[in-house]
Write a structure and sequence with these properties.
two-stranded antiparallel ribbon; Cytochrome Bc1 Complex, Chain D, domain 2; about 400 residues; single chain; mainly alpha; 12 helices
């Protein structure tokens, strides 16, 4: 064989090899993680190769830009997905009976219809479970009713370590959070999920906090009647074209400050709800003190440290029924009772933390509602509820 023939033969063989490799690559891709444990646990509810959209959800242009407590923990689809699994996983309780989603139910705007939610071994929550709607869009960055968590990240693992709630307290013979981390390390879908999200299978509290906070911040509700109206006007003070006359009246009462006389009796203006619950997010002003409800779910004494509140969005569901009782005590069953509470504020002995906005001229306020004002306020508050938050699968339980 001549040199030329050898050269041609070499080229021919090289071409055959290239075609062969190309054909093999097309029919048999380079092996990747098949996520067998994820598929076994969640079926089609979670597909690492096709994640739900958590990171790039739309939001209204009229939101106040600085009302976003995301900070450095920007939402990603992968981490929020892992956060969703952690949120709904009963393995995060000592007896595998309770998850975060047990107390914060999607069908009730991530709250609970029970006054005190059930924990492990007969335990119950010390306060009513707070709705989690639009937690991201609040100027208040502290969490829990008494603001004891400096961030949502810190908040996410505290119920897990609560002796009565999820039980990993490390007290009275109970396992600690370190035991939980070891427990999760032995579950196949967590090995795969953490490796998928972080590049390795190490499970830490910081990683759990990061992902769970992202999932909670992703829960948003901006498809209400209020939002449809607000998008058509320049500010909340203008009549909304899609509102009834009663709803617009209720809105004006809500946002307009009241006028009081020297004895705390309202003589004009609105009722000033917006002073603490700021539109358009309806989140709580971080400078508020308590609202005069100082009881406890159980036990004796008073609880004057409650100064936070969830957004007023989605107080009622799509059927118009309240998403469970209101306030940290759960003693307010409906909107009419909630409005009535603010109508007459009594300064209770020992309540040294009552918000001064409720005590004009040093007197407990008397709003002196007319019946039609109460009805208008109720009508307006009902416009703050959306629909998608109750049904969107990306916020639902992936184990079902």
């Amino acid at each position: 064989m001549t040199k030329t023939q050898i050269s041609i033969a070499g080229v021919f063989l090289a071409l055959i090899a290239a075609v062969s490799c190309s054909k093999t690559d097309n029919t048999t891709p380079t092996p990747v993680d098949t996520y067998a444990s994820i598929k076994a646990a969640f079926g089609t509810n979670i597909d690492p190769n096709s994640l739900a959209n958590y990171a790039n959800q739309g939001k209204p242009a009229y939101l106040v830009p600085n009302k976003d407590n995301t900070g450095a923990n920007a939402i990603s689809n992968a981490k929020a997905t892992l956060g969703r699994v952690l949120f709904y996983d009963k393995n995060l309780s000592i007896d595998n009976t309770v998850s975060c989603g047990s107390c914060h139910k999607q069908e009730f705007a991530f709250s609970d219809t029970a006054i005190a939610s059930a924990g492990v071994a007969g335990g119950v929550t010390g306060r009513h479970s707070m709705r989690l709607i639009n937690a991201r869009f609040a100027v208040e960055q502290k969490f829990f009713w008494d603001e004891r968590a400096a961030s949502l990240e810190q908040q996410t693992t505290k119920p897990i370590q609560d002796h009565a709630e999820m039980g990993f307290s490390g007290q009275s013979g109970r396992p600690s959070l370190a035991n939980l981390l070891t427990k999760l390390q032995g579950i196949g879908y967590y090995t795969e999920l953490f490796k998928f999200v972080y590049g390795d299978a190490s499970i830490t509290e910081a990683r759990m906090q990061e992902c769970m906070a992202q999932f909670v911040r992703s829960i948003q509700s901006f498809d209400s009647k209020y939002d449809a109206g607000r998008a058509q006007v320049a500010n909340d003070g203008q009549p909304f074209p899609n509102f009834t006359a009663q709803e617009n009246t209720g809105k004006q009462l809500f946002i307009t400050p009241p006028v009081f006389d020297a004895t705390g009796n309202r003589t004009g203006g609105g009722v000033g709800c917006n002073g603490c619950h700021n539109a358009p997010e309806f989140d709580i002003d971080p400078n508020t003190k308590n609202n005069g409800i100082i009881g406890k779910i159980s036990g004796t004494g008073i609880d004057i440290t409650v100064t936070r509140a969830p957004s007023l969005r989605d107080l009622v569901n799509t059927a118009g029924r309240e998403n469970g009782p209101m306030m940290h005590t759960g003693n307010i069953p409906n909107l009419q009772t909630a409005i009535g509470h603010y109508g007459i504020i009594n300064i209770a002995p020992g309540n040294t933390n009552l918000d001064p906005r409720l005590t004009p001229n040093g007197q407990g306020q008397r709003l002196n509602y007319a019946a039609q004002e109460v009805n208008a306020l109720i009508a307006f508050l009902r416009t703050l509820s959306g629909t998608n938050v109750y049904t969107d699968k990306k916020w639902g339980n992936p184990f079902l």
